[in-house]
Structures are given as structure tokens and as C-alpha cells.
Amino acid sequence: MFPKFVPVPSHNLLLERDADKHPVLECVNLGIRFGGLAAVEDFNIAIGPTEISGLIGPNGAGKTTVFNLLTKVYQPTHGTTLLNGKDTHAMNTAQVSQAGIARTFQNIRLFNNLSVEDNIKVAMNCQLKSSLMGSLLRLPSFRREEEAAHNRAMELLSLFHMEKYANTKASALPYGVQRRVEILRALATNPSILLLDEPAAGMNPSETAELTENIRKIRDTFHIAVLLIEHDMDLVMNLCEGLAVLNFGRIIAKGTPEEIQKNPAVIEAYLGKQKGA
Fold it and tell me: Is the pTM of this model over 0.85?
């Protein structure tokens, strides 16, 4: 049965199964200008608590800029972002992460000289409560936190059957494995929503198929939402429940994959206006 979208009070669309729930993420008229140029304008979207959604569009449409707005790499010029109903306007990047938004990047950003386990544990620093003195003296409270962080890292690695890489330096990993470590590091922050920026970039068909299943596994295991930017349309159409299409910084269409595939504005944005049309 195909998903169906219904309007919510802010005039955004939400999956019918989530109509009685608050969106985990909602943007209302979000935008940013660089000088006189509107890079993103009137960006409106709502994502349900366990929705897998996609943000697609031609190169240069503003997709990564949207992610930078959501994570406060850029401060919006106007508009509102609500995370679990809370306005993120006054938050910085670290505070947004602690509040529940985690992301990966187009270009992998692992600490190459650290082990896989340590890369994941880095993301847990904001959850640690031991004082500097406690860590220097290795007090019992610090040792308990260290053990808990180790167990959590190994639990996350087991999700993708990657325990064998725990002590391997990130720089020694194959590309596809590095991508998975970056996703696991994002999950270590215990997010409400995971933002994936072109997660299938550079992957072969086998790795892409595995990624598709892993994203579903993440949603079903942690009961979180996923928003991804992706150019692999087979992955997008097979994985995403809802799609928003961005062109020149504006959303030109929203709906299910089936609706988006048939939308004339989307076809024109990707293929150009046909002669005689």
C-alpha cells in the first residue's frame, strides 16, 4: 500500500500514519540570502517521527544549503525550524546536535588517524559527565563512562556487522566502510532525525543496495526519521516515503515517489523544457 500525505495545521504535508503526531522536524518559510541572492527561499517541509524522506533536485539547487541551515552551519535569514516542536532559532551547531539533529557530509569527514571505535566515541563526548580531574585521575565514575562508551560503540558497529573494524584506523578502511562508520558516528549522538548528504556517492550497485537496507534498519531499530539528499534515483524511489524537489532554492513539488515521477515541473527541472511544449 502506497503512503498517503495529509495536510498539517502549518499547511505542510505529513504521512497519514503520522497525522496525529507532532512532526520531528518542521520548516516554515525557511530561507537564506547571500547578499542579494536568495540561495533558499520559502522552504516548507514536515517530517514524521519515523519517516524516510528525500530532498532531491538538480546540482546547485540548494540542497546542501538546506542541510547547513538545519544544522546551523548557516543561520537563516528568515523562517522557522522546529525540532520536536522546539524552535531552533537561538541554537548553534553543537546545541542543534544535542537537541536531536545528526548529519553526514558529501565528503567523508572521519578522523583518519583514530580507530573506528574512537571515531564513534568522539560523538559521545557531549554525553559524558566526568570532570577533567575525574578523567586525569581515572576515577570510578570516569571508568564507568568509558566502559559505557565502549559498549555503545560496539553495539552500533554490530548493527552493520562491523565489530572486526573496531581497532582499525579509519584511513585504512575501504570507501564503503568509511561511509558506514560516518553514519554510525552520527547515530552515536542519539538523534531524533538523521540527515544523510549523498550517502550513496561513489558506491557501486552492491554497496548501494546494502546502504538502502541499512537505512531502513536504522529507522526500524532506533525509531528515528531520516532525511537524505541523493542523486541515485533508483535508491530514492525505492527507499523514500516522501520527496521534496528543490530547484533554484525553492521547493517545486512535494509528494510520494509515484507522484513526483509524474510531476511536469519536476520533469522540466531535470530534463529541461521540451520544444513545442
Answer: yes
Kindly state the helix (H) or strand (E) to which residue 86 belongs, with its residue range. strand 86-87
Beta strand pairing status for 78-83 and 25-34? antiparallel
User: Would you state the cell numbers that stand for residue 221, as one nine-digit string?
Assistant: 531499530
H-state helical runs in the chain: 63-70, 93-99, 116-122, 132-137, 140-159, 175-187, 205-222, 233-239, 257-261, 264-271
Neighbouring CB atoms inside 10 A of 175's CB total 12
Give the sign of the dihedral formed by CA 144, CA 149, CA 154, CA 156. Answer: positive
238-262 pLDDT per residue, tens: 999 999 999 999 999 999 999 999 9
Nearest Cα neighbor of 129 from 143, 138, 142 is 142
Residue 195 C-alpha cell reads as: 540527515
Torsion of Cα atoms, 264 then 269 then 275 then 277, to 10°: 20
- Cβ–Cβ under 8 Å, residues 188 and 123: yes
* Per-position DSSP letters for 108-145, written without gaps between them: ----TTSBHHHHHHHTTGGG----HHHHHHT-HHHHHH
